What does this fold into?
Amino acid sequence: MRPLRSIKAKLLLTLAVSLVALFLLLWWVVSGALQELTAQYLEERIEVEISSILAELSLDDGDGIQLDIRHVDALFRFAFSGYYYQIVLHGAEDEQVLRSRSLGEFVMQLPDVPVGKQSRLILAGPKGQRLLAVVRSIPLREKVLSLAVAEDLTPFENNRQKFQWIYSVLSLALLVVLLAAHYWAVQQAMSPIKKIHQNVLQLEMGQVNKLSVDVPPEMEKIVEQINRLLLRTEQRLVRSRSTMANLAHTLKNPLATLSQMVRHSLPAEDALLRTEVEERLAVLHEVIERELRRARLADHSLSGTLFCPKQSLGDLVRTLKNINFQKNIEVELDFSPGMLLPFDQEDMTELFGNLLDNAFKWAKSRIGITLEELEHRCTICVEDDGPGVPAKELERLAERGVRVDESSPGHGLGLAVVRETVVHYVGTLHFTRSSALGGLRVEISLPMPFAEGGSLRG
It folds into this structure.
């Protein structure tokens, strides 16, 4: 059996078990105490009756016992009244028995009680009812007198059961109220954790750059440690990006210079050597670009801005239209105007930049861009009315550096960067033929970084 991992469930279970155990213990104690108090009360009342009977008891000339019932409680005279006495005089050879009229022909079975002692016990009555009896053993000359006075417990037990039933109902109602109060208290105690969770979501979406310190004292140290870690991570990220930018600038200039030197310095007859050197430099340039993109994807800031398709795609489409003004391509955008997606602005701009750059290259007159949210996932679709790609080549498109049309400049690195971005966001990437436009269709599905609430609305 798996142990409970939820703090809330552990608290509620512990409190519920404790309260139930406490109420059961109280019920047992109260029931036992009530029963004992009733027995003590009846015993004291029976002792008074015993004293009254002994006062009216006398010996006759034959050492027998006589009882003047005129001064004994009248309840002992009515049949099965619930009040009974039985007197037994034990002699050496015989015994004398006097019983109350209320017993009728019934004889109470009395235990042996040591001489001079008194015992309280439960006996069976003439009609099977429970009797509380007090038996006293008294020495009388050379004989022993046993006097038992009993009272029917049925009325008291009925009242006790009625009390226990009422007490149980009230206790159960109080238990339910206390459990509800404890549940509410645990909910209130756990609310700061929910606030921290919301704060973390805001941090992930870029709305804040650190966690709020308005938390209970027990969580202050944890929040402070997380904020310090975020600050150090941000500082390292800034230094890393700065170093990467400097490295890119430092390496790109020498590479460009080497390319120029190779192009203009090598003799024409060394065309083979020139081609080989240019290819090596191109590979080196691609490696630098790839590693820079990987570093940026791996270390993007937690406080990055949200991606706004309306603004970002609008700017990107206008720029590409200006570059490809001679084609007069119409771009259809299909998404909610107020959509905000919890993805890094820079990552998404690069992803759409590569997809649209490739679409503008091959499209004849139309490009379609669709963004929609389905079950906490964002689906991105970019399609064009270009010549498309043969079915056997579709699987190779996402491979790094692959160009289907080798006769013209391709976008193999761009599509591979798209793939890396999708992999970074744990998404999926598919290439198919567009049924609506006839060209290439690129479909991307990205899970939302947070499951509650989907995207934001501007």
About this structure: The longest helix spans residues 154-205. Confidence is low (pLDDT under 50) at residues 297-303, 403-411, 451-458.
